[in-house]
Automatic annotation (TrEMBL):
One GO CC term, this protein: cytoplasm
Lineage: Eukaryota, Fungi, Fungi incertae sedis, Mucoromycota, Glomeromycotina
Source species of the chain: Rhizophagus clarus
Pfam families: Jacalin, Metallopep
Domain Jacalin-type lectin span(s) in chain numbering: 513-665
Protein name per Swiss-Prot or TrEMBL: Putative zinc metalloproteinase
Gene3D superfamilies linked: Jacalin-like lectin domain
Length: 667
């Protein structure tokens, strides 16, 4: 989406007499963007010679000071500050390195900034122990300057978050999803994003979470992620951070997204330790909080201000491993510490925003190349860092497809997700040689895994109606394209409501879903809902049974439940019965079938067990809702009118563990 101002001043202007004036490559003049700090890539100066120069960025009608950025062999990258509304930006090239007249060349560029205030923000939080010293690990020279103190850490986290935002917006644009991006929770306060003129601005809010947990608890070596002998069963750092957010209250008392830095992380060099304590790199969430956390042991290398971004990503100072961590053996210099500290933290924020591990990019270990996004020079590398040289500094395509439909990335003209589809998951059916996938919330992505590694995906983000709810896939083509019969293929369906639904073993499901039944002959089983327990015996419940030319019909169901279904007992016209689960009491309800009446649809909520369900019959009747409403929502019905439901199947022990349907071709 682009925004153009109607008057003639909206055009990009430059020194027409010189082909060496700055040219912006990655952003169109007058474009609409949604982030405060915009990443610019451009060309300036002669493109057929080696030289180094600089570009000064000036902001007209903007209270942000001028900044200076490198030009290397005509390539430049810079980060420009934007205010809401129209921004007039000047790019001024120093021509001294390649021109005798030394006259600066100027390009004026316009960008319109509109923050996505309607979307939930990413919140920034720093966890501080109850008795914290409020300092981080840092080299001696930075300790003397106070760069190891809490106020400095706040500035570093704020700057890192704006780098995340600028990087992600550029990646979304490169993947043709516009410049949609998550917004940061901001407030009007003393800004630190520039070291020249702090002043009051609308800037990222940093929540200081003063925990009830002590330093001893947070630095407990038994829960340190890098401790090879850590102890299972103790409350881990992720749970401690979660507890502390809940104790803090708003805005963490409702659905929220959080990037959490652990302030008191410490690299312990004592003989019995030799690892980082108080650190965990984890992302995900539960309840209303989605959270990515990281320790502060590499934060000493981060920039506090935009003016420090280039120097920090190019600082080749050797890490003093007698006092500072060389994380993963990949942080031996400060610029690499900066990469891993900011980049690996972004990896955990990616998990917070639903991204899994990917074959390449940030959700792999591509963050080792994060510097290449923001600078045109890299230590010990003679080549300019153009976009084609950025290597792992990218979001993998399946990540950006997830973000495309994430509520944090919604554009103003896009309707919000429907509340009634919020928890809807996908379901699977076998149709002879095909796998049918259905999801009423719409399907954006299907991922294929072997041994928990993504080996391929199908992208449905650009379907014409943007409402892909049913997809048929040829099973032998999936096996041919993404694996073979010797490797288990796991399928994950990502729906547009951000739910993931896994089919753990395609080959097994394909084989076991085809069954032979007396009288009926060939039949199929849908995927089961709930979580399988291999020790439990599967129960098949046919609506109509046949003995000696006599049909026996299902007459009633008795359901017992609390928040989840304890048992379902089926009774036939010959007084026989079958039970799934265990009669453990609870609320008791009964459903009676009329003559020739049978089930044609089940609405089911399930997670680890069957939480609750409702049935619909061929006579149009619906039962009441039995059980609770936890887990994800599913609808089990026949794939199309060529088939009919002939029964159910499931397993149970203390509760009803799983449920599915049995169907065959209509006779």
């Amino acid at each position: 989406m682009k925004f153009y101002v109607s008057n003639s001043g909206s055009s990009c202007t430059k020194n027409e007499s010189s082909p060496y004036a700055p040219v912006i490559v990655n952003v169109e003049n007058g474009e609409l963007v949604h982030q405060r700090i915009l990443l610019i890539y451009g060309r300036a100066g002669p493109q057929d010679m080696d030289f180094e120069s600089k570009i000064t960025v000036e902001h007209h009608e903007n209270n942000f000071p001028s900044t200076t950025w490198q030009v290397f062999n005509s390539h430049f990258k810079c980060l420009i500050h934007l205010d809401s509304g129209l921004n007039n930006i000047k790019f001024i090239l120093d021509t001294k390195p390649f021109s005798s007249d030394s006259i600066p060349l100027t390009t004026t560029f316009q960008v319109y900034y509109s923050p996505l205030l309607q979307n939930p923000p990413l919140n920034l939080a720093i966890l501080v122990a109850k008795d914290s010293k409020e300092i981080i690990d840092a080299p001696e020279e930075k300790e003397k300057s106070g760069e190891n103190k809490l106020e400095s850490v706040k500035a570093k986290l704020r700057c890192a978050a704006y780098l995340w935002q600028a990087f992600t917006a550029e990646q979304m644009s490169r993947n043709e999803f516009g410049r949609r991006v998550f917004r940061l929770d901001e407030e009007w306060t003393e800004d630190t994003i520039s070291n020249q003129n702090p002043g009051l601005r609308q800037t990222a809010r940093i929540h200081i979470i003063r925990s009830s947990y002590t330093l001893k608890q947070i630095l407990d070596p038994d829960i340190a992620q890098q401790n090879p002998n850590r102890v299972d069963g103790k409350k881990d750092l992720y749970s401690i951070f979660m507890d502390s957010l809940q104790e803090y209250g708003a805005p963490f008392d409702k659905q929220c997204y959080v990037a959490g830095l652990i302030l008191d992380t410490h690299y312990d060099t004592s003989p019995n330790m030799g690892f980082v304590r108080g650190h965990a790199a984890l992302g995900g969430g539960w309840g209303n909080i989605r959270l990515g956390i990281f320790g502060s042991h590499l934060t000493h290398a981060w920039p506090r201000h935009l003016e420090e971004v280039v120097s920090c990503f190019q600082d080749n100072t050797i890490t003093d491993e007698t006092r500072l961590s060389n994380d993963s053996g990949e942080s031996g210099t400060w610029w690499r510490c900066c990469n891993i500290g900011i980049g690996a933290f972004l990896h955990e924020v990616g998990h917070c925003l639903t991204a899994p591990h990917s074959p390449s990019g940030i959700m792999s270990r591509g963050f080792n190349y994060l510097n290449r996004t923001f600078t045109v020079k890299e230590p010990n590398n003679p080549l300019p860092m153009t976009p084609s040289e950025e290597e792992g500094a990218h979001w993998y395509r399946s990540d950006v497809v997830r973000f495309r439909f994430h509520p944090c990335f919604r554009l103003p003209l896009e309707p919000p997700a429907k509340i009634d589809l919020k928890d809807v998951g996908a379901d699977f059916w076998i149709l002879n040689d095909f796998l049918l996938v259905k999801c009423l919330a719409g399907i954006s992505l299907i991922e294929f895994y072997i041994r928990n590694n993504i080996v391929g995906y199908l992208d449905y983000s650009n379907d014409e109606n943007n409402n892909q709810i049913e997809i048929r896939l040829k099973i032998d083509e999936i096996i041919k394209n993404y694996g073979d019969n010797n490797n288990i293929i796991k399928i994950n369906v990502v729906s547009k409501n951000q739910n993931d639904t896994f089919l753990e073993n395609l080959q097994k499901f394909s084989k076991e879903s085809k069954i032979i039944l007396p009288i009926y002959g060939k039949a199929f089983k849908s995927n089961y809902l709930g979580k399988i327990d291999e020790s439990l015996t599967e129960v098949k419940v046919l609506f109509k049974k046949f003995t000696e030319n006599k049909s026996i019909t299902l007459k009633r169901m008795v359901i017992k439940y609390e928040n989840i279904i304890n048992s379902i007992t089926f009774y036939w016209s010959d007084n026989t019965n079958l039970c799934i689960g265990r009669d453990r009491g609870g609320v008791k309800r009964e459903f009676l079938f009329e003559a020739e009446e049978k089930i044609v649809e089940l609405k089911v909520n399930s997670g680890w067990y069957i939480d609750g369900f409702e049935i619909k019959t061929n006579l149009g009747r619906r039962s009441e809702w039995f059980g609770g409403h936890g887990g994800s929502k599913h609808v089990l019905e026949v794939p199309d009118n060529e088939y009919e439901m002939i029964g159910l199947y499931g397993t149970g022990n203390y509760y009803v563990n799983t449920l599915g349907i049995i169907y065959n071709l209509r006779i």
